[in-house]
Design a protein that fits this description.
Structural class: mainly alpha
Strand content: under 5%
Number of strands: 2
Order of helices and strands: EEHHHHH
Strand order of the largest sheet: 1-2
């Protein structure tokens, strides 16, 4: 992966994709989990966006590790890196419960003789897990973004003017 693009570090460019797609996925997953009509119309699309978000997270992590080697070491950068490492498993968990919702909903709609009894257990559990995974993932992406902003902007304004 290149370290720069058009003279800019790749990490902030990729991170903007992550901080757009992950919250979008979180909000859309909440809608899909609690609103049956939205689930029927949007769930496969939300899973697609979640897939793209899931793919961008390792790219952001890798580019962040390259950038970390280029900047001076600080506790703020280390905190951001540690928090950043937590996003992939959280987003993966959200992706899994979304995939379950999509699969069960697809199966139920294709069944001509009515939904099997197991779907009356699996779907509510998947819905609750989706709400929980969305909440945790949403909070964590904000924490990661805030720590990154602190790491970048913490010393702005402390230098002397030329």
């Amino acid at each position: 992966m290149p370290e720069t693009l058009w003279g800019l570090p790749v990490h902030p460019l990729i991170v903007h994709l992550v901080v757009f797609l992950v919250p979008l996925t979180v909000l859309a997953a909440l809608v899909v989990a609690v609103w049956p009509r939205a689930r029927r119309l949007l769930a496969p699309w939300v899973l697609g966006v979640a897939t793209i978000a899931l793919i961008t997270i390792p790219l952001a992590t890798e580019s962040g590790e390259h950038l970390e080697e280029q900047v001076s070491r600080s506790s703020l950068v280390e905190e951001h890196a540690e928090l950043g490492d937590t996003l992939l498993p959280l987003m993966a968990a959200l992706w899994v419960v979304l995939a379950i919702i999509v699969a069960v909903d697809f199966y139920v709609r294709r069944k001509t003789d009515g939904p099997p009894s197991w779907t009356r257990v699996v779907m509510p559990v998947a819905m609750v897990l989706t709400v929980g995974a969305s909440a945790v993932t949403g909070v964590q992406v904000v924490r990661i973004g805030h720590s990154g902003a602190k790491a970048v902007w913490s010393d702005v304004g402390t230098g002397q003017r030329g």
